[in-house]
Amino acid sequence: MTPDGPASPAYDRAAPAAEPACAAAAATAAAHAAGAVADAAGAVADVSGFVGDAGGPVADVSGPVGDAGGAVVDVVALGESMVAFLPTRPGRLADVPSFDRGIGGAESNVACGLAAAGHSVRWVGRVGADAFGDHLVAAIAAYGVDTSAVRRDPDRPTGVYFRTAGDRATDAHEVAYYRAGSAASAMAPDTVDLAAVRSGRVLHLSGITAALSEGCLDLLRLLTARGVDRPLVSFDVNHRPGLWRTAGAGGPAVLLDLARGADVVFVGDDEAREAWGLDGPDAIRAALPEPEVLVVKQGGSGVTVFARTDAGAGADAGASRAAGGGDVVTFVPALRVDVVAAVGAGDAFAAGFLSATLRGLPVRDRARHGHLMAAAALTVPGDLAVPPSRGHADRLAALDDDAWGTLRLGPGWTQAAERAPEEVRTP
């Protein structure tokens, strides 16, 4: 996103999500989700292929996966969610007198976004058998997410954190985590319901989970191991140097190894530079040749998507074939956004991209839907925004390149479902 204000969207800097648990907002999101399901007319449940009309399918996510204990859903997201305390006014944590309670978690944020967009979603995690755990599960479920596989830990607490109101990209931003020894840190192959984890057409994970404990790392290694009966695995690198300082050395190498086991990978070019010393999308692709789809987020300029296809496959308009013929490379410019709060965009982008993937849309439109979901997050104070209706998002994603380039979105744009795109754009 290119901000028209002091805040920077920086998709790749989005930390674990935080959004006040507003029942009204969740109800609105649930209503949108119901409408999206109706509009889909069954299309979401029948995913025809991975690359859509960019050529032959790269991976097939069209049928039930594994021996899931429960109904097969579109997406399962696994990871830690926490109770977040958001300041009622700007200032240092030492100076802020009061906080609003919210929820926070990169993976659960993606789950909420996908559920609000009309998909069937399950969140798998562990929370304490405490009041904060009660609040967390109820708040996520209010967005239409299935929380039946969440386990309660009688001995470990639900994690919490406090953050300042400023942009996370600035030196003034503060985050204080109280997650050591949390219930989520006890996730391991033998403490989660693996059948529920594998019960989706897509399994979404992030590198944050790997840094929480050895058990969590063992779990992610198991889930990213390639095999014939696994779901399509989506992995957001989410490099958090502070977490890895606590977890021990080797974080960047661990994240690279996990990403190599995934089918779809999201990574910011700046975090790839910080973690792996890689500059630019081509260098990142060279280090990550295994994923079928690699999405490199380039801040305010846009995203570059590498999609592996058969030699004879076609490509989206404007895409180019990489040297060697193995990839179709598509650059999709970001939007201009009147930013309210530069938080949550990374998780929202992943939700939009995965939603369009489940619908079999071409690569360009997947990235555009990611940009649109990110714009929804950027134009509200918190991270979890009500997405545009499916029809509204489809109309914007279908704009020609010139119209897309003039699109500018501000607060309230997601509610403009009945307005023509021209009413949202500015000269």
UniProtKB/TrEMBL annotation:
Record-level Gene Ontology MF annotations: kinase activity
Domain Carbohydrate kinase PfkB: start-end pairs: 74-384
Domain of life, source organism: Bacteria
Keywords, in A-Z order: Kinase, Transferase
CDD domains for this protein: KdgK
Family, as annotated: Belongs to the carbohydrate kinase PfkB family.
Descriptive protein name: Carbohydrate kinase
Organism: Streptomyces minutiscleroticus
